C-alpha cells in the first residue's frame, strides 16, 4: 500500500520559514518524480516545486529564490524548505509522487495546512 505522509505545516508570520516533509512508503522512491502542490480556497491546485530522481528541480515563478525542494532517497523523503513566507503562500500543501516512466502510478498525500498571517 502506497502512503505519502506530509508533516511540518503550521501558522507562521510573514517573513518566517517552514520546512515541509513527505515520507513515502510502498514505492521504489528513486523511480519517482516528487513534487509539492498547493491549493488555496477557491483556487485550483498548482504545482509549486518538482524534483526528479537525479535531483533536477523546477519551481513556480512566485516561489523561486524563496522555496527549495530536496529529496533523500535513503530516507524515502522529500522536503520543501519555505523561506520569506508571504500571506499569499497560505494553502494546503500536497505531496505527489509520479513514476518516471509509468504515468498511471501517481499518488497524493493527505495535505498539510500552511497559514501565513500576522
Short précis:
It is built from no helices and eleven strands. The chain has 118 residues and is mainly beta.
Description:
The chain is mainly β and 118 residues long. It has no helices and 11 strands. Strand 7 and strand 8 form a beta hairpin. The chain is globular and about 40 Å long. The protein starts with a strand and ends with a strand.
Q: What is the strand and helix layout of this fold?
A:
Blueprint: E1 3-7, E2 10-12, E3 18-25, E4 32-39, E5 46-51, E6 57-59, E7 67-72, E8 77-82, E9 91-99, E10 106-108, E11 112-116
User: What structural class do helix, strand and pairing data support?
Assistant: mainly beta
Proportion of residues in helical segments: under 10%
Radius of gyration: 14 Å
Tell me the overall shape: globular
Q: Alpha-carbon distance between the termini?
A: 40 Å
In total, the number of strands is: 11
What is the N-to-C order of secondary-structure elements (H for helix, E for strand)?
EEEEEEEEEEE
The poorly predicted ranges are: none
For the largest beta-sheet, the strand count, sense and barrel status come to:
7 strands, mixed
Strand content: over 45%
User: Mean pLDDT score, rounded?
Assistant: 97
Give the count of helical stretches. Answer: 0
